[in-house]
Every structure is written in structure tokens, then in C-alpha cells.
Amino acid sequence: MSSSLLKSCYAERNPSTLYIKGVQLFFSFGLKEEGLSLMKRASDAGYKRAVYTHAMTQAIFWCDGQYFAGIPRESVQRIGKLVRSVKWGWGLWHSNEFRQNRALFISAYLPSFYSCQCATHVERQCLYLWHIDLTKDDNMCERCFWIKEIGMFLRDFEPISLIRDTRKW
After folding, report:
1. Which residues belong to any copy of the At2g35280-like TPR domain (predicted)?
2. What is the pLDDT of residues 27-46, one digit of tens each?
């Protein structure tokens, strides 16, 4: 996309552009306040990818699950798969904080997911994120449902990294 088009879309507060820039600022440049603010604006405008990513970001970085209520359970799988499947080209490694939060999630929440008897459980040798999407059927409790979704986000999401630095839009 040309720089002038991105600048124009950003100036018009296009929700998808706000989302892209917000995710880039938050995850690629570590500018949390600015990035989260842009994701929230895109989310408030009803952009579904932003609603999902904002909720995941709030849960992972601030243990705040209140934004999950804004996502209908029946659409989470589709939106989540869409957000996690986007590969933004060059890709950056996640920040140390993201990796620390992933490790904390694995040690603190994954055991409760695997020990909860809320749904038919497929036995696995190890309690890792790699099999979380294949471990329980769709009849799981609300807590396990969101643990599973956060786990898949932590496993599959890649931060946005564009070739050019767009902080000057």
C-alpha cells in the first residue's frame, strides 16, 4: 500500500487502518499506550478484528477479561482464526514481555484447562499450547473456552512489521 493512501486512511480514522497501526505500535514498537488506544478506537467503531485483538491484548497484558463480553462466542473461532492467520511479511520476534506472559499463561492457566472436566477431553502427553485447539470438544465451560482462545492467540499471533516505519503517519 502506498504511504499516501495509508496516511489518508489514517487521517480519516478508517477503523482497519487504526487497527493495523495500533497493532504495529503495540507489538512491533512497544508503544503500548498509543497502540492500545488505536486498537480500542477501531474496536469501538465495530471493526471485528480490532474487537478480538483488543480483548486478547487486555487479557494477556493486564489480566482484564471484561472485553470478551463484546465478542459473541459463535463468532470467536472465525474472527480468531482470521486474526491469527495473517502473516505480515518480515515478522518480528515477540517482545520479552509477550514471551514472559506466554510462559506465565502456560504455567498458571494451562493446568486448569487440562484438569477441568467440563468437556470431552483428549489425552495428551504434555500440556503445551501446540495441541490446545484439539484437546477439548466445543462443549467446554466459559473459562476453558477463553483459556483455549488466549492459548491459540499466544501460539499463533505474529506481530505486524512493515518494511517502513509508519510511526510518522
Report:
1. 3-57
2. 888 899 999 999 999 999 99
Amino acid at 121: H
Query: Considering only CA atoms, which of 125, 143, 142, 123 is closest in space to residue 134?
Result: 123
Place of cell 477503523: 15
What's the predicted TM-score (pTM) here? 0.84
Q: What is the pLDDT of residue 9?
A: 83
φ, ψ of residue 121 to 5 degrees: the values are -110, 130
Q: Are 91 and 158 in contact (CB under 8 A)?
A: yes
Residues with Cβ within 8 Å of 50's Cβ and at least 6 positions away in sequence, in order, are 15, 18, 19, 22, 39, 40, 42, 43
Taking 3-state DSSP, the helix, strand and coil percentages for the chain, each rounded to the nearest 5, stand at 65, 0, 35
> How many residues are present in the chain?
169
Whole-number Å distance between alpha carbons of 167 and 21: 8
Each residue's pLDDT tens digit, 100-131: 998 999 889 888 888 888 866 666 555 556 66
The one-letter code for the residue type at 59 is A
Cell match 459473541: residue?
Answer: 72
Helix (H, G, I), strand (E, B) or coil at 121: strand
3-class secondary-structure state, position 78: helix
Q: How far is CA 41 from CA 30, 73, 93, in A?
A: 18, 22, 26
